[in-house]
Amino acid sequence: FPIKILPAEAIVSGPEKAPAGSEVKIEWKGPNNQGDYITIVEAGADEGAYKDYDYTKNAADGIAKVKAPEEAGDYEIRYVTGQKGKTLASAPLIVESVSATVSGPESVVAGSEFAVEWTGPKNQGDYVTIVEKGAEIGKYRDYFYTKNTESPGKLRAPETAGEHEIRFMTQGGKMLTSAPIVVGAANATLKAPESAIGGAEVTVEWAGPANKSDFLAIVPAGANDGRYRIYTYVRDEPTVKVEAPEMEGAAEIRYITGKDKKILASVPITLEAATAKLTSVPEKMVAGDNVAVTWEGPNHKRDVICIVPADAEAKQVNNYIYVTNGPDQKIRVPKKAGNYEVRYVTGRDRKILASQKVTIVAE
Predict the structure, then answer these.
(1) Distance (Å, rounded) from C-alpha 305 to C-alpha 291?
(2) Which of 30, 35, 165, 290 could cross-link 330 (Cys pair, CB 3.0–4.6 Å)?
């Protein structure tokens, strides 16, 4: 018997009007073949044309979700076959223009957080940002999405001073509105002792913007900007303690911005070499015993007294006590007999400041 192929039929229906860029819910009926889709195009667009779309296989409940174009005008909702791009059904749709407003302070300090009042659409991907005045459309720095942010939202100013703009941008890269804002330069001051022991915590008085992630660091004099291994974030307190590197010589304390790592202030400091002495250590120890030792030293954070094999590398730290816990401590002696050393080792760079050879005998 001959097979009669019936023409495929479909129906689409949606709202008469939709805001530009909004998500449009479209009811549909149709063959739901592989690759069939629902799209929104300009009224009278060529067959097979499409913009945003939703596959019918992904909208099996009979409701497709398609983003409206961002330009206002007359459009069509279409059911299009995946195989040949044929339109099986269409319905008219008017896309209406949307508007937005943004307003913030006239000026802010570089790197600071500030509030932005805004009105406008909350479409997926719409956002408010701050950029240099006259920046290309689509450029952005700090931003917040309008979909999940109530007014006022918060932005962080760039760390470069100058004239800037607050912009309301659509997901498709269209600017709905903008407002001017001046970013002023941030300044800082530091006051600290002229010298300190390498590895010590240095008390520093500071004043500055205290923006998010701003920090103080002590580095070798003239060190390149960029990475900082040891640092302390600035808080509300006017003084902070900053750990000095375990070095000797000329150094500087810096106030550094959290985002672009700009140096806002620096003062010199001379770092002196840390020294230590083991004042009382038993020459012989019994394996597995607990022994007391005494010492003199900088007693910096994480410094240790340890017992290690005589040929151990400086970074090998076994059977240890922290010196900051005080002198009334005992160290557990290793269980294996042999030649060992008791060492005073710094906490950051594992430098050996003092050592004494000992013999461990079996129990």
Answers:
(1) 12
(2) 290
Indicate the pairing of strand 17-19 with strand 87-96. Answer: parallel
* Cis peptide bond prior to 152, omega within 30° of 0: yes
Q: Is the dihedral of CA 109, 112, 116, 122 positive or negative?
A: positive
Domain 11-96 has CATH 2.60.40.1930: yes
Q: Which CATH class is domain 189-272?
A: mainly beta
Q: What is the pLDDT along the chain (363 residues), one digit of tens a residue?
A: 566 555 668 999 999 999 999 999 999 999 898 999 999 999 999 998 989 999 999 887 899 999 999 999 999 999 999 888 899 999 999 999 999 999 999 999 999 999 999 999 999 999 999 999 999 999 999 999 999 999 999 999 999 999 999 999 999 899 999 999 999 999 999 999 999 999 999 999 999 999 989 999 999 998 887 778 899 999 888 999 999 999 999 999 999 998 889 999 999 999 999 999 999 999 999 999 999 999 999 999 999 999 999 999 988 998 999 999 998 899 999 999 999 999 999 999 999 999 999 999 997
Tell which residue, 48, 50, 64, 55, has the closest CA to residue 14. Answer: 64
Q: Any idea which residue has 């002023």 for tokens?
A: 184
The DSSP symbol for 57 reads G
- Name 129's bridge partners: 143, 167
